[in-house]
Structure formats: structure tokens, C-alpha cells
């Protein structure tokens, strides 16, 4: 199943243990449906989180009313569940769950209902339907909710993991997903579930071992390179590949070093900058290292004045986190 992704404002900006959404960021979003009959939502497919979160009909703040909201009363298959347990009994009060997003938070009840990615890939799954959302930052974002695609340990439980539910229900050919981010305007970005569209590949595929148990799609890097020169600043660092973020963030000393090395007066001079590379051991290659590099146009941004050294440091320091680092993909 392939779902078209659209480039929109309002990505997810991470810190270790929390998330910040920033208005200047960009994100890729697509459509999913919840319930029977289906209720459609525009969501970020986010590898940096683990739950499906959508606004609920009982959320009346502007952060919710400006977006599509889930109405459990309109779904024949919806069941209220305790967020840490089973179905809510007739005389029980459901507990709620608070999810913190750095500058704001979401408070919601949990439901179990039919979740569909496309028309045919469906499974019953638990999710969070908010009844409170802070206006900062959710009021201005262009998407309705977030569909977490992190590993199971990032989800509230296995029943909240959409990939786990699809796999258990035999709704998916293989337990995998793949992102394609289009460069040309005539192409469409997309996420595919259950298969890889090899005609979209720009090179051969490389496989890397997931490191750690935090639930992120995290890999260990050998070092950071500028062109072909190792910087000796991040040996053995662990980096999370985060599709919900449009930034590259890292520990203070790493960001300061890169900011000093990548200083230019004007973004028109970005061609003078080196490639920014990450060396990662290939899985099953006997220790062979693959260098994945970004061209200057992929790690600089005219609108945010990244090319000015003071703005570059100020912005990246605002993203300061403890290991693991986060490597964003949205542009």
C-alpha cells in the first residue's frame, strides 16, 4: 500500500525525552482513517514516536476545532479503553493519558477502533483521542494528528503500535515501511507499507543494525565527516532517524564544532561548503563502513538564515539534546 505524502508546515522538533513543534519546520503528511464508517485524518508518519494521536470531538479549544476531530459516537466499531488496560465498563470512568510535546501537551482518552492505511490495509488498534490540547503549538499546525512508527517500546503498549497490529492481523505483506521523498516537482512523495518500491531507489540499498532499546530507529555512527575528513567528534554516537523532524540536532559540543566549520557569510556561498557525512557500519558486511553524505543545500536553509554563524549556533543550540542524537529527514 502506498500513501501520498504532502509537504506542509509544522514539523516535530525533538529534545531527548520530549518534542517541540516549530512553525518554521516542514513535515510530510498523509491520510489515514479511523472508525466505521471511516473518519479521515491528515497525520505525520513519525518514526520518532509510537502512538496514533488524533483530536477528539470533546476537545473544544481552537487547537482542536481547527482540525478534524474523531467522534466515537459516529463509529459502529469504537470502544473506550483504559489507557493502561482493558475496555471501560458501563459504570467505570476511563482514565486518561498526557503526552508532553516540549512547548505544549495533549491530554486524551484511549479508544480501540478500526484504523486503515489506504482502503485495504486495516486493523483494530488502540489510539489516543484528545480532549485537551495546548494552543501552542497545535493551533497553527497544518496536520490533524501524529501516527507513530517507532519501535514497540515507544508505544503505550503493543496494542497501540499500528505496525504491530497490522502484522498480527495479517493485513501487511511484510512488517516494513519505506519513505520516498521526491526531489522533482512532478514526482509525488509517498510512504509504502509492506513492500519497497524498488523503482524509487536512487542507489543500491544499505542495511544498518538498530542500536539500543529506547524504541527509536537508532544506529551507531563511527564519526561525522566533512567531505572525506573525519572530525573525531562523535565516535560511537547513536543517532535516531526521525521522519517527524526537519532538523539535524545533536550534543552541544558536536553542534558547536560543526557550526564553526560550516560558517559562511551568505547562503549564496553555500557551494563552498563541504559535504556533511555520517559513517555507519553496514549490517552483514564484516565491519565495512558506509559514508552517507548531505550536500550543502540539504543542511542549509535560506529562510532560517542558517548560513549566518550566529543564527546557526543559536538555532542548533536550541535543539541541544543528550545522546542519542536525532537526524531529521523532512526538508
From TrEMBL:
Pfam families: Asp. Disulfide bonds join 59-64. Keywords: Aspartyl protease, Disulfide bond, Hydrolase, Protease. PROSITE patterns: ASP_PROTEASE (PS00141), PEPTIDASE_A1 (PS51767). InterPro entries: Aspartic_peptidase_A1, Aspartic_peptidase_AS, Pepsin-like_dom, PEPTIDASE_A1, Peptidase_aspartic_dom_sf. This is PAG2 protein. One of its GO terms (biological process) is protein processing. Belongs to the peptidase A1 family. The active site is at 46, 242. Residues 28-331 form the Peptidase A1 domain. One of its GO terms (molecular function) is aspartic-type endopeptidase activity.
Amino acid at each position: 500500500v502506498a500513501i501520498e505524502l504532502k509537504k506542509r508546515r509544522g514539523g516535530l522538533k525533538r529534545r531527548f525525552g520530549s518534542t517541540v513543534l516549530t512553525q518554521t519546520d516542514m513535515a510530510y503528511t498523509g491520510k489515514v482513517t479511523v472508525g466505521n464508517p471511516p473518519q479521515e485524518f491528515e497525520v505525520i508518519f513519525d518514526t520518532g514516536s509510537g502512538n496514533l494521536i488524533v483530536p477528539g470531538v470533546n476537545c473544544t479549544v481552537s487547537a482542536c476545532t481547527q482540525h478534524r476531530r474523531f467522534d466515537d459516537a459516529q463509529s459502529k466499531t469504537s470502544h473506550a479503553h483504559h489507557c493502561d488496560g482493558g475496555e471501560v465498563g458501563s459504570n467505570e470512568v476511563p482514565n486518561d493519558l498526557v503526552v508532553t510535546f516540549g512547548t505544549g501537551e495533549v491530554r486524551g482518552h484511549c479508544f480501540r477502533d478500526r484504523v486503515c492505511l489506504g482502503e485495504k490495509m486495516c486493523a483494530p488498534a488502540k489510539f489516543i483521542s484528545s480532549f485537551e490540547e495546548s494552543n501552542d503549538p497545535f493551533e497553527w499546525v497544518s496536520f490533524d494528528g501524529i501516527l507513530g512508527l517507532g519501535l514497540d517500546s515507544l508505544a503505550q503498549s503493543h496494542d497501540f503500535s499500528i505496525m504491530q497490529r497490522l502484522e498480527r492481523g495479517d493485513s501487511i505483506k511484510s512488517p516494513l515501511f519505506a519513505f520516498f521523498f521526491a526531489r522533482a516537482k512532478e514526482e509525488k512523495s509517498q510512504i509504502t507499507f509492506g513492500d519497497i518500491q524498488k523503482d524509487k531507489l536512487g542507489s543500491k540499498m544499505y542495511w544498518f543494525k538498530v542500536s539500543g532499546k529506547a524504541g527509536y530507529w537508532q544506529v551507531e555512527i563511527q564519526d561525522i565527516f566533512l567531505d572525506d575528513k573525519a572530525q573525531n567528534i562523535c565516535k560511537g554516537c547513536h543517532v535516531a532517524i526521525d521522519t517527524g523532524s526537519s532538523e539535524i540536532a545533536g550534543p552541544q559540543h558536536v553542534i558547536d564544532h560543526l557550526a564553526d566549520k560550516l560558517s559562511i557569510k551568505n547562503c549564496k556561498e553555500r557551494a563552498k561548503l563541504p559535504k556533511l557525512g555520517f559513517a555507519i557500519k553496514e549490517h552483514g558486511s564484516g565491519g565495512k563502513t558506509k559514508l552517507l553524505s548531505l550536500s550543502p543545500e540539504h543542511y542549509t536553509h535560506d529562510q532560517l538564515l542558517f548560513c549566518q554563524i550566529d543564527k546557526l549556533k543559536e538555532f542548533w543550540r536550541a535543539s541541544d539534546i543528550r545522546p542519542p542524537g536525532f537526524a531529521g529527514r523532512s526538508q
